[in-house]
Design brief:
The strands form 7 sheets. The protein has a 7-stranded mixed β-sheet with strand order 17-18-16-15-19-20-21, with helices on both faces. Strands 3-2-1-6 form a 4-stranded mixed β-sheet. The termini are far apart. It contains 18 helices and 21 strands. The longest helix is centred in the C-terminal third of the chain and has 27 residues. With 474 residues, it is an alpha+beta fold. The protein folds into 2 domains: 234 residues, Nucleotidyltransferase, domain 5, CATH 3.30.420.40; 181 residues, Nucleotidyltransferase, domain 5. Strand 17 and strand 18 form a beta hairpin.
């Protein structure tokens, strides 16, 4: 008999409730509910519209109940680093600040001035790549500039933890999402309490770590009453969307790299233990938690965010312009050989992404791309060149050879990007599945309920369930 599992999957621009039906050998996916997820600009800050998103989650659950579906479990995955603060009564003290906000900028320098602790020491414990958006710097800002909030707070919950708490009433920090914070000891898989105390950060707010594949709780009564569902178990999955995506990547061996391709591109390999060395520090590699106690050794790269923002602008004047049109125009603009640096700070949240790309090309290359094809080709070139540098860095720091790249996520629907990746990186690319985060989310639910033994078996299920496509370097 087939079993039904619900996956909430939150991305940079939308959230979805997906139904996964498992028949014992294959997973079939169906979208139940989709809703926008856009940061709200209010009085100089970008906020997460948490209450609206939670309302939409319940709308999705109502739709499932109205169809009479017997739900066996629920899992939640989101982006990393953002968090909310709860008071002693369990109430949200303020809307969480979205990572696109710039409050983390300059915090590393202030931290070093205030405490004498620098980035290299922080990396030696956490193994995390420096990014101004990391939770460590967001929390440092709050402790220093919003102390009234921190003083009233009784618990810190990362975004998927906050949603799970809203559904179940149970407070935990799931391992993979906690590992994006730059506050976790990468080797011990526990909070880096000694380091955080020396940074004068409120360790008391941190919650117990729960590992993927464990039971979080069940839908609490008020949620059951409002949605019409029973006391459905909520499972701790790989709550960081990339952890779930990697879980679903059918990697052939430890020599295979994964590339989760969406708003962000996350390129790396699976390890048993973190790689924390001077070489990995210099190359800005990060060590994040994976399912089954693995380490995702990777680099965070700005992915299709820039293309998404360009499309948003161009579609305002011509609604017929979609991602397919942009991809084809970029492919035709083969005369554009220069590239942007996708990780440059000018592309984090510009008011006009097209102008940001043009001005970068003018300043860096003395060239001004004019057409949609020329502008987008400079972006594509920059993304895949960063992929190549990252693969070279993986091979150098791990003293191994990457023999294949498994691309997963929404970005693989862009065949030009997949082929360009194979060509520029010089490695065969296996693309699939598209719905990697959702699939990995469901796989960990299946493991928690005993329907599959482990991730290895889950990846066989993926190969049976979804079409994969190979791209050879040309």
């Amino acid at each position: 008999m087939a079993t039904a599992h619900l996956a909430f999957d939150f991305g940079a621009s939308n959230g979805r409730l997906m139904l996964g039906t498992y028949d014992g050998s294959k997973i079939a996916l169906e979208e139940i509910h989709r809703f926008p997820n856009e940061p709200v600009w209010f009085r100089g800050r970008y906020y997460l519209d948490f209450l609206r998103l939670f309302h939409e989650m319940k709308v999705g659950l109502k739709k499932v109940a109205q169809r009479g579906i017997k739900v066996h479990s629920i899992g939640i995955d989101t982006w990393g680093v953002d968090f909310g603060l709860l008071d002693k009564q369990g109430h949200l003290l303020a809307n969480p600040v979205n990572y696109r906000d710039d409050r983390g900028r300059g915090m590393l320098e202030e931290m070093e001035r205030d405490t004498g602790i620098g980035l290299e020491e922080i990396y030696s414990v956490t193994g995390n790549q420096y990014m101004t958006i990391n939770s460590l710097f967001q929390l440092y800002y709050d402790a220093k500039y919003r102390p009234h909030l921190v003083e009233q707070a009784d618990a810190l919950l990362f975004t998927p933890d906050l949603f799970a708490y809203a559904l179940t009433g149970e407070k935990c920090s799931e391992y993979t999402i906690a590992s994006t914070s730059q506050m976790l000891d990468a080797r011990r898989r526990t909070w880096a309490r000694d380091l955080l105390e020396r940074l004068n950060l409120p360790v008391r707010l941190l919650q117990p770590i729960i590992m993927p594949g464990k039971m979080w709780g069940e839908l609490k009564k008020d949620v059951r009453d409002e949605t019409g569902l029973d006391a459905v178990p909520v499972v701790a999955v790989g709550s960081h969307d990339t952890a779930s995506a990697v879980c679903a990547a059918p990697l052939e061996s430890r020599s295979s790299a994964y590339l989760s391709c969406g708003t962000w591109s996350l390129l790396g390999v699976e390890l048993d233990q973190p790689m924390i060395s001077s070489a990995s520090y210099q190359r800005s590699f990060t060590n994040e938690g994976g399912v089954e106690n693995t380490i995702r050794y990777l680099k965070n790269i700005t992915g299709l965010w820039i293309i998404q923002q360009l499309r948003k602008k161009w579609a305002d004047s011509d609604p017929t312009i979609g991602y397919g049109e942009i991809s084809r125009a970029a492919q035709d603009a083969s005369h554009i050989t220069y590239a942007i640096d996708p990780n440059h700070e000018s592309f984090i949240a510009p008011l006009d992404m097209e102008e940001a790309v043009v001005q970068f090309c003018k300043a860096r290359h003395g060239q001004q791309p004019k057409t949609i094809g020329e502008i987008s080709r400079a972006v594509y070139n920059g993304i895949v060149q960063e992929y190549r540098c990252t693969v070279e860095g993986l091979e150098e720091t791990l003293e191994m050879e990457v023999d294949c790249i498994n691309m997963v996520g929404g970005g693989i629907q862009d065949e030009f990007l997949c082929q360009l990746t194979a060509d520029v990186v010089g490695r065969p690319v296996v693309a699939g599945p598209v719905e990697a985060s959702v699939t990995g989310n469901i796989l960990m639910q299946l493991k928690a309920l005993g329907y599959i033994r482990d991730v290895a078996e889950g990846r066989k299920v993926v190969e049976c369930s979804f079409a994969l496509k190979e791209y050879r370097p040309r």
